Structures are given as C-alpha cells and as structure tokens.
C-alpha cells in the first residue's frame, strides 16, 4: 500500500535539519563566510603553486593542458588539476553544499551525508541531527582542513552517504537505496582521494562478510545476492561517471612512485618493486597506547606545536630564567612541541568524543549483534591498521600482500574508519535506549557498566598521569636550545590529567541524563536534547584547539605568492622556457612553480624515474643533470645574492655527437654520473633496440624552441647532416607524440628521463603534442555515465515522492 506525499511530514523536518547544519557551519566558519578570510593551508597553497600553469592555460584557451612543466621538470596534470567536462558530478556537489566556499562546504556536506545515513536507518530527524554532529565534528575532520587536505575531507564526508545507500537498499526500497548508493559513491570518487575510498571499501567488505554470514544462516542469501547485483550495477555507474579521472590516474600510477621500480639496485629514496617504500609508508604510525586519544584528546600532548597559557609551568620557568613577562608569554603562545607520542609530528589527535566512546561501549551491550559485529570489527581493524609499524604482524602482511595497500602512506589515516564506525554504533545505542527502554533487560546495569568502563579509564589516567615518562624524541633539541624541559614535561602531564578529568565529566553528565531517563525522571526529549548539547560542546571545544578564529587570515594566497626579489630578477628573462631550482627547499615546495618552471615541486606521486634522478643525481649536485634539465637559475635564499646563474644550461634542445648505449635502467642512471650531457645521449638499447651506438657530426647544426604551450612544443632545426637531438623535456610515452614537418615520427628516451629523436639533414619543424587517448576515452565514458546517473536520480526522486511499497528488509533490526 502506498502512502501519499506530505510536505509537513516528509520535507519540513529535513529542512529544519539543513537550517541547523547551516547555522552550525556559519558559526564555526564565520571568518570564511562573513569576513572574507581564509586559512594558510599548506597543501592548498602548494596545490595552487603547482596548478598555476594549468589554470592559466585553461583561462587563456578554454582547453585542458593535461601536462605541466611547472613541477619536477614536467609531469601529467591528472593528479594536480584536470577537468573532465563529461563528469557532471561536480554540479551535484555544488547543489548539495549550496556552493558554499571550501572549508565551510566541507563540514556542511559531512553533516548532510551523516544525516542521510541516519535517516535511512529510520531515525527521527532530531536524533539524526545529533548523530550527524557526532560524525562531523570529530577532531580529525577539522585538523585535516587546517592542513589543507580538502579532497581527503570531502572523500571522507561522502562515506556515510554510501553506507546510507547500502542500508536503505537492504532494509527498505532497493531502487531508492541503490540510487543513493550510486550518488554517494560517485561523489566519494569524484574527489579522487583513493586512499580514503580504499579504507571505505575495507569497511564495506567487513559489512558484506557479516551480511553474507547472516543471510546464509537465515536462508536469505538469494535475496541478498539479488540486491547485491543491483548495488554492483550502481557501483559500476559511479565508477563510470568518474572513469576519466580513474582511468588516467591508473595509467599514470604505473609510472609514478606508487608504481613498480625499474631499478634492481636499491637507492636512497625508494623501494625496489611495486608501491611505496615500507618505511616511508609507515612513518606516520599511531602508537598502540596513543589510541586512547579517541577518548582523551591530549593524552599525548595534542599537537607538535601547541600553545600554552600564562599559568603553565613552562611560562613560569621562562620567568625564572630571567625572561621578561611579554617574551615568556610570546614563547609559550607561539606553540611548543607538547606532543610526545611515537609519530614524527602531528597537528593533533583523532578524538571521537568521550560521550561517543561511552555510547559505543553501551552499544556493545544493547545493539543487535548483526550491527555490532561489523561496526566493532571495522573499529578494531581500523585501530590495528593505524598502528602500522607498531603492529608489524598484521601491517607488514597487509603491505606486502593485500591488493593495492602498498600504494598508500601515513597509515594513521586508517582511523577514519573508526571515526565512522564509533559514532555510528554510539548513535544506534542512543536510538535503541530511547526507543526501546522498556524492552531491554537490565538496561540500568548495562548503562552503569558502560559508564564505569569509560569513566574508569579516565579516572585512572587522572589519578596516575604522573607515572608516565612524557619524554619525546624532540626533547634533546629543546635541551640544546635551553628550553626548560622539566617544565614542558610537567605541562604535558597537566594536559593529560586535565583532559582525562574533562572526559570523565562529560561521561558522567551524559550517563546521568540517560540514567534519569531510564528511571522516568526526565523525558526522552530532555534526555536526547541534553546528550546532544553535551556531545556538541565536547567535540566543538576540542576542535577549537586546532582550528579556531585566530587561524583565519585575509589575503592568504596574495601574501603567500607575493613575488620575492629572486622571483622578480628571474622573471626579467623572457626566454620561452627554462627551469629554476630553489636550493633552500627544492623538492618539498611548489611556490617556485607559481612563477617558474621548477626542477622541484611538491607532490605525493611524482614520476618514479624523476625521483630516481633526484635521489641519485640532483640531490648530489650533479651539474650535468641540471644542465640537461635546462636549469638556468638557482634561488639561493641569500639576501645578498638571491639568484645565481647555473653554468652553461643546454637549452630547450641540442644536437649531440654520440649515443652511449646501455643495457638496463641501472646502467642508464649510473651513466649520468660521469658524462657530458652536451655531447652524449645515454640510451637503454634494451628498451629502444632501434637506437644503435653511433657518432654524429653536430657541427653546423642548430635547433631552437619557437612556440611553447604546456601540451604543445614547436622547434625549428637546421643541420647539414642527419643528427640526434636531445630535448630538455620529460619522456612520457602515454600521450606525447612527436611530429616532423607535420608527420608523426617516433621518439625515444635518453638520459634516463628526457626525450630524443633522430632528425634528418636540412631544415625541419619538430613538434611535440600531448593528447593522451586515456583522457578522451575516459571523458566520453564519464559523459555517458553522467547522463545515466541523472536519470537514476530522477527515478529515485519519483519513487520517493510516490512512496512505492516497501520491500521486506534483509538486514537485522537495531
């Protein structure tokens, strides 16, 4: 039997929820929305530097460059910034976020997606609002925004919508649920942070295993299989919308540092084999004991640069050392390394909330096992994976054998699974308690046990905090800098004790409210509202430690990209194309790329061969390698001489007099140690057998670059005899095509990373054009899939309004 559509019942509660979410977002991000301020987000500023050439080309021509020469000598633009006109999912995001600016939009869409999940579960609008707050204001969601991990944030934001689609497809209407799942997965993939998508898929895998076990046990496997096939089609559609982005990423990954190394001998920076180096991937591993920060935020001191107050031990120690009060205050407020955990550094802990932890434990006792099975399993898996090198038995196995796992670094990020599963189970527990109070046996006892466990941990930490060492690896540097290390350690102990007591108070207050509800002393509305307010205050105040109004500034981008004296001097050179190396910070900074074509840059997936070149030669100051990269200027960081000319750069292209054949990539990169880049081309003849050892007469031969665009280069050459030209451009076979006088010709790799080709005698026009087939094919499939997705959305909206009959659920009740 169908139910008629009712605006007051079916629209108004959700509209109120949206207004509440807008208000929360507006209050937290008021500097962004009302004062035109922004954050100095490190990764976003680096992105803007690396993407400047790509964006300029798009504005000037209306086309996509797909390649940029602004970073690491040249690389595909796929993982920097590439638009896919066939992918319409960006419009969906703008609609869902009301096109709010970044940062504000990130948290708003997190609230919306979490709300969708909980409403799909069947919760009331008010309870879903509380749950959305629990999901969205976990500390990590705000900390990664401060760091500039915007795409990571948005990928995480859409995970609850994916789960909501799964739940709705299995519990209620298969077709509406599948449509919601398709939209959620489409948007999750849209932001192309595949590491977060991978972790989501791990959680979905755990969920699927539990569902299959229960379906077989209950004789419902056929129904589950049917619904699973529909969800699989929805997943294929989501992949189809993002196919251009995924296809080009997959193609590029083979050649990036995430792909397989061609070297058989280890070098200083990268692992031989496929994927990242194990040490590099596990460098940011959460400590086993550090997991308690989920309950007590500053258990390990919080941030690696945390400000202190004037009532701190460190402030008083500075005064006792003779520092003036103003100087002592400045020293403590500018931030000190209060974090003393096992990670190299951190911007803050992963804190899901004391009340969430308390309700999570309660959920173990009162929520249906079919839900707790996968939510608890996902939480434990998340924690163990986050421990990384601190739990080698599991994590080294995962890294070496689990598909694609070795493509990702900073394994502490796997705690994003816990920050989904823990609030989810917590709000399920609250829902169960409020709606089925009288049916749950010994509920008061279970509530007291749950409170006793979580509050007891806090109490023990508060009582025995002084017994910890509070010693950090950075302490020796502080001692050498004559910082009062004993006072700093005392403040670390104080932070631990203070936060333990803080969490204890929130648990007691929330537990007390719920206990009064169980005993009929307060209504369900009062209990729910009280817990919701406490939960918001708990999370909000911790979030403000790491992202608050003082962090927002005006004209962040304009100030960061203000040209320096060195930039201004270099920009006086109007040659079409040359490169610059920033000596103080060449390979971890893309600011140089905003103004110049840089030898260095900032990117987590640069070309592996270029990384080899950095490790073996550029970092070793091999001048011949800098010459062959047409490095014309070096930024010194010295005010007296901010710029130095690099001796004899070889230009955009040059004729060489000899080919030096080698038989492997190992020999090829070794040969660059002692060679004359101006006269010799080193070629791996095992890869390019058509190239033979030959001598050329490079006299009376010239070549020059006459036209430059990031994806199209034109040269004019003249030579009396046949010759061999080396181009100071990065070789990348999947997309670059060479042309001689308008006709396609072959080119090959020389000097480990550059392009080369044989040129016949006479005057010729040589062109290189970047037109990868992966982009055009991927964009076409994205367009077709986008049209299909819109049809699916329209059908789902029609279904929802018409209230089609609800199918029998195949998942358990809460």
TrEMBL record:
Alphabetized PANTHER family for the sequence: INTEGRAL MEMBRANE PROTEIN, INTEGRAL MEMBRANE PROTEIN-RELATED
Pfam family membership, one: YfhO
Transmembrane segments: 12-29, 100-119, 126-145, 151-169, 197-216, 228-247, 348-367, 374-391, 411-434, 446-465, 500-518, 781-801
Annotated protein name in UniProt: YfhO family protein
Superkingdom, natural source: Bacteria
Signal peptide: none
UniProt keyword annotation of Membrane present: yes
Keywords for the protein's UniProt record, in alphabetical order: Membrane, Transmembrane, Transmembrane helix
């Amino acid at each position: 039997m169908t139910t008629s559509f009712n605006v007051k019942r079916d629209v108004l509660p959700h509209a109120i929820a949206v207004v509440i979410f807008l208000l929360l977002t507006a209050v937290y991000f008021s500097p962004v929305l009302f004062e035109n301020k922004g954050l100095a987000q490190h990764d976003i500023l680096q992105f803007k530097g690396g993407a400047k050439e790509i964006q300029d080309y798009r504005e000037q021509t209306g086309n996509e460059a797909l390649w940029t020469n602004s970073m690491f000598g040249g690389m595909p633009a796929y993982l920097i910034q590439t638009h896919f006109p066939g992918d319409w999912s960006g419009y969906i995001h703008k609609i869902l976020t009301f096109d709010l600016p970044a940062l504000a939009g990130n948290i708003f869409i997190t609230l919306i997606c979490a709300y969708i999940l909980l409403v799909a579960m069947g919760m009331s609008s008010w309870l879903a609002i509380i749950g959305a707050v629990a999901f969205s204001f976990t500390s990590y969601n705000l900390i990664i925004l401060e760091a500039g991990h915007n795409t990571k944030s948005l990928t995480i934001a859409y995970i609850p919508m994916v789960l909501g689609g799964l739940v709705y497809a299995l519990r209620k209407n298969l077709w509406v649920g599948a449509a919601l799942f398709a939209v959620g997965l489409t948007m999750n993939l849209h932001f192309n942070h595949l590491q977060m998508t991978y972790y989501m898929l791990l959680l979905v895998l755990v969920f699927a295993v539990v569902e299959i076990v229960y379906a077989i046990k209950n004789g419902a496997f056929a129904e589950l299989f049917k619904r699973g096939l529909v969800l699989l089609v929805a997943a294929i559609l989501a992949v189809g919308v993002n196919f251009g982005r995924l296809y080009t990423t997959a193609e590029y990954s083979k050649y990036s540092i995430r792909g397989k190394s061609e070297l058989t001998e280890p070098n200083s920076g990268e692992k031989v084999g496929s994927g990242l180096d194990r040490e590099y991937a596990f460098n940011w591993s959460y400590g086993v004991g550090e997991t308690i920060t989920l309950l007590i935020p500053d258990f390990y001191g919080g941030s690696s640069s945390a400000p202190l107050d004037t009532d701190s031990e460190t402030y008083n120690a500075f005064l006792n050392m003779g520092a003036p009060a103003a100087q002592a205050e400045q020293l403590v407020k500018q931030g000190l390394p209060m974090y003393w955990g096992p990670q190299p550094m951190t911007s803050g802990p992963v804190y899901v909330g004391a009340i969430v932890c308390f309700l999570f434990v309660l959920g173990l006792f009162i929520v249906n096992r079919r839900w707790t099975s996968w939510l608890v399993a996902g939480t434990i898996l998340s924690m163990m994976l986050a421990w990384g090198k601190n739990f080698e038995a599991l994590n080294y196995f995962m890294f070496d054998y689990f598909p694609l796992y070795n493509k990702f670094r900073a394994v502490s990020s796997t705690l994003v699974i816990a920050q989904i599963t823990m609030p989810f189970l917590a709000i399920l527990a609250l829902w169960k308690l409020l709606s089925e109070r009288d049916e749950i046996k010994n509920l008061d006892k279970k509530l007291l046990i749950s409170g006793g466990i979580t509050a007891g941990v806090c109490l023990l930490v508060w009582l025995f905090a002084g017994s910890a060492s509070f010693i950090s690896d950075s302490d020796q540097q502080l001692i050498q800098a004559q910082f009062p290390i004993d006072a700093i350690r005392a403040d670390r102990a104080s932070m631990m004790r203070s936060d333990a007591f803080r969490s204890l108070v929130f648990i007691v207050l929330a537990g007390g409210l719920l206990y009064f509800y169980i005993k009929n002393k307060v209504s369900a509305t009062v209990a729910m509202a009280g817990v919701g307010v406490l939960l918001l205050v708990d999370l909000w105040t911790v979030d403000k430690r790491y992202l608050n109004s003082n962090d927002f500034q005006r004209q962040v981008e304009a100030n960061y990209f203000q040209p320096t004296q060195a930039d201004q001097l270099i920009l006086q050179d109007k040659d079409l194309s040359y490169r610059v190396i920033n000596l103080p910070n060449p390979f971890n900074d893309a600011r140089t790329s905003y103004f110049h074509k840089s030898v260095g840059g900032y990117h987590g997936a640069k070309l592996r061969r270029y990384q080899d070149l950095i490790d073996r030669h550029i970092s070793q100051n091999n001048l011949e390698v800098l010459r062959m990269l047409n490095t014309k200027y070096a930024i010194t960081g010295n005010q007296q001489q901010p710029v130095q000319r690099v001796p004899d750069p070889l230009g955009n292209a040059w004729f060489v007099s000899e080919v030096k054949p080698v038989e492997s990539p190992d020999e090829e990169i070794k040969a660059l140690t002692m060679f004359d880049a101006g006269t010799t081309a080193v070629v791996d003849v095992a890869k390019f057998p058509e190239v033979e050892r030959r001598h050329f007469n490079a006299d009376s031969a010239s070549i020059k670059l006459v036209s430059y665009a990031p994806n199209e280069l034109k040269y004019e050459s003249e030579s009396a005899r046949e010759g061999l030209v080396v181009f100071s451009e990065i070789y990348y076979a999947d997309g670059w095509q060479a042309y001689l006088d308008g006709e396609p010709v072959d080119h090959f790799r020389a000097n480990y990373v550059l392009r080369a080709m044989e040129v016949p005698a006479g005057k010729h026009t040589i062109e290189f054009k970047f037109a990868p087939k992966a982009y055009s094919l991927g964009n076409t499939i994205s367009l077709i899939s986008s049209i299909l997705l819109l049809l699916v959305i329209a059908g789902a909206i029609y279904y929802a309004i018409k209230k089609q009959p609800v199918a029998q659920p195949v998942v358990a009740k809460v």
